[in-house]
Amino acid sequence: MPDGLKLGGGNGICQIGAMRNDIERVLIDEAVIEKRLDAMAVAIERDFPDGTLVVIILLKGALVFAADLLRRISRPLEIECLNVASYHGGTRSSGQVDFLDRHFPEVRGRHVLLLDDILDTGLTLHAVGARLREEGAAAVHAGVLLAKDKPRAVAVTVDYVGFEIGDEFVVGYGLDYQGKYRNLPFVGVLKAAAGSRSYIADPGRPFL
Ligand code: 5GP
Ligand code: MG
């Protein structure tokens, strides 16, 4: 077998190990996530009317969640992706959400399922939901893997929530800290030494 095909080969394992060392605590492990996704997929299949569903994945955070969730849904769907940056607090006007793509998916008259990794202030889902409605979507439903148990900056309705968590910064299963940890198969909390505490306090930094 050529080297590239060997499962769990050398370097990869060491690097995942190094990432795990930065984790203070695993919040939701892989098996629990998978079980929850089974139930979410059943609910989505049940709720959407017949016909092709348009799924919009907010990059990059919702990528892993969406890939695992959508493979559990056995009905026709189209996948679109959107890059948005939300700026929280401080130096930028609070609540600003920028659409970074040149093109916006065609959603007129379509039933849309919008997927994001985590619901925090609600600004991102609020802005993207409003834009989808402006673009003429027949219905917009939203799903997130995680929702923080805290007051939202704006009112948003989320139809599918994987897990409610406390108000703390998490990584893994698509969620990053400075671009890292997205490929951890679980959701966890970083050790203080890994730096995420200062990340939260940094106003005006875009969340992707
Ligand atoms: P909202 O607009 O609801 O405040 O925030 C949504 C975005 O903020 C998410 O898509 C995500 O990119 C980012 N975010 C919010 N909380 C966390 C967190 O605990 N960890 C990570 N990695 N990103 C977060
Ligand atoms: Mg995001």
What's the CATH topology label?
Rossmann fold
Distance between the termini: 38 Å
Number of domains in the coordinates? 1
Low-pLDDT regions: none
User: How would you state the average pLDDT, rounded?
Assistant: 87
Please identify, by name, the CATH architecture: 3-Layer(aba) Sandwich
> Could you say which small molecules are bound to this protein?
guanosine-5'-monophosphate, magnesium ion
* β-sheet strand percentage: 25-35%
Description:
With 208 residues, this protein is an alpha/beta fold. The chain has a single domain, classed as Rossmann fold (3-Layer(aba) Sandwich). The chain is 27% helix and 29% strand. The protein contains five helices and ten strands; from the N terminus they run αβαβαβββαββββαβ. The strands form two sheets. Strands 2, 3, 4, 5, 6, 7 and 10 form a seven-stranded mixed beta sheet that branches. Helix 4 links the parallel strand 5 and strand 6. Bound molecules: guanosine-5'-monophosphate and magnesium ion. The site of magnesium ion has 6 residues, from strand 5.
